[in-house]
């Protein structure tokens, strides 16, 4: 695990995007293509803004995303499909983008995605860490062992409060209680992981992920076991680190 601390979230985004773009370029040079995972949420704004400006042959990039609320249409302001469609897919036009569809049968959707992603070894995963330490929507206690790539998960109250606090929903009651999420094991199968964690509200989660015990109660702590994880903090999110 490498930890990089920047002066601001803007510099964090630029630095994380630069490293991620290097990994994508290397995969294209070596394999003729790159398979990536793209995250959503407020933590990814600056990184994505920088990534879409990189000189990458996106026609050789195949993409997946981490999670989506169950029962969520793509028109909803909080939809992760909407987020990625507008902020990423329409900007770079990758070869393929495999969305998680939240408004179909979730069991069937997991099965569909699991069959697809099994054919795409992931070169780079762009992820974040939740205020409760979650990785994707794997809230504590996370399942560290399940091998299926996508599963149905229940969202805890802390996670749902974060989504409301970031302005995606008007009230806690509006935040869905379930989602389809990429699993911990599927994320760890990625060759490289770029983890962007800005803002003071993430400082405790960042400290636990980097310096804490590896435990399902702190899901992102599992990143300590990954050989090529790069965690990008700004000075606010790094305040509690030893």
Mean pLDDT, as a whole number?
95
| Main sheet characteristics | 7 strands, parallel
Q: What percent strand?
A: 15-25%
Radius of gyration: 16 Å
The number of helices is 7
Name the shape in a single word: globular
CATH topology: Rossmann fold
SSE class:
alpha/beta
- Widest sheet: strand order? 1-10-9-6-2-3-5
Number of strands: 10
Q: Portion of residues in helices?
A: 25-40%
Q: Briefly, what CATH class? A: Alpha Beta
Tally of individual domains: 1
Order of helices and strands: EHEHEEHEHEEHEHEHE
CATH architecture: 3-Layer(aba) Sandwich
Q: Note the gap between the termini.
A: 16 Å
Low-confidence stretches: none
Describe it for me?
The protein has helices spanning 9-31, 45-51, 80-92, 106-117, 157-165, 184-188, 203-211, and strands at residues 2-6, 34-38, 61-65, 67-69, 96-98, 124-127, 150-154, 178-182, 192-197, 229-234. With 242 residues, it is an alpha/beta fold. It has one domain: Rossmann fold, CATH 3.40.50.1360. It has a seven-stranded parallel β-sheet, with helices on both faces. A three-stranded antiparallel β-sheet has the order 4-8-7. α2 links the parallel β2 and β3 (61-65). The protein starts with a strand and ends in an 8-residue tail after the last strand.
């Amino acid at each position: 695990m490498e930890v990089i601390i920047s002066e601001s979230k803007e510099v964090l985004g630029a630095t994380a995007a630069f490293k991620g773009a290097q990994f994508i370029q290397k995969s294209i040079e070596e394999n003729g293509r790159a398979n990536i995972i793209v995250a959503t949420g407020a933590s990814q704004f600056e990184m994505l803004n920088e990534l879409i400006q990189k000189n990458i042959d996106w026609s050789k990039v195949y993409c997946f995303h981490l999670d989506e609320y169950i029962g969520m249409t793509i028109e909803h302001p909080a939809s992760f499909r909407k987020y990625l469609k507008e902020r990423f897919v329409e900007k770079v036009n990758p070869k393929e983008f495999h969305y998680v569809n939240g408004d179909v049968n979730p069991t069937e959707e997991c099965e569909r995605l699991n069959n697809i992603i099994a054919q795409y070894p992931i070169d780079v995963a762009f992820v974040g860490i939740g205020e409760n330490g979650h990785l994707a929507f794997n809230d504590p206690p996370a399942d560290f062992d399940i091998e299926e790539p996508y599963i149905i998960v229940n969202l805890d109250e802390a996670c749902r409060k974060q989504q409301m606090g970031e302005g995606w929903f008007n009230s806690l009651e509006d935040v869905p209680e379930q989602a389809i999420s990429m699993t911990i094991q599927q994320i760890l199968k990625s060759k490289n992981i770029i983890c962007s964690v800005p803002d003071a509200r993430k400082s405790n989660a960042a400290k636990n992920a980097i310096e804490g015990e590896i435990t399902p109660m702190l899901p992102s702590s599992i990143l300590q076991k990954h050989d090529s994880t790069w965690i990008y903090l700004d000075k606010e999110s790094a305040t509690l680190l030893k």
